[in-house]
């Protein structure tokens, strides 16, 4: 069976790398013959540092589906078309937004140095923070703050994009239209109802709807509505749930 895991808030917490106990649980899945895919809002650049090196060859979906890695860290991207990218940039300027905008590897960041996202941004310093206009393509946008989020969101929703709101962090995630964790999984070759998904936020909804079994970590109201099971946002309880699901299969 294929297990698909979101990362932050699902199997890793407070932006820290996977714990030894969590890695042991995932290794047990592999030892039992199961496959693992990581599906995160993080771009691949920021996803790799929280995984142990031996898991860097696992298939990955990053940026809520905008980045896909199948083997040998070959990264493919789904980026905004030129017109939409320019429209987004204009709105960022109009509403004096603070942002993180990702290209395939480099990025443009305008937020504060103490923002939680900044702490998880390119920790291995393998990319460059470049001016927004110099990014060769725009793959994913995170709006950290603006002078009017409501009006900004209204105008954004007139564009061919997908938005996810993270209320606890008061940020807006933006992806190209029709891009989601589920579309990323399809690019890897995953079929509907042929995998088990663990997640904790609204950006996990598309893949939860296609999962054979879906476990909501925590109590996100929209995600619980489409999940088959729920577990509290506690690492030890999540580990127990992973083992429980594995044993149900075996």
TrEMBL record:
Keywords: Hydrolase. It comes from the Bacteria. One of its GO terms (molecular function) is hydrolase activity. The keyword Hydrolase applies. Pfam families: Hydrolase_3. SUPFAM superfamilies: HAD-like. The keyword Isomerase does not apply. This is HAD-IIB family hydrolase. It comes from Paenibacillus yanchengensis. The lineage of its organism: Bacteria, Bacillati, Bacillota, Bacilli, Bacillales.
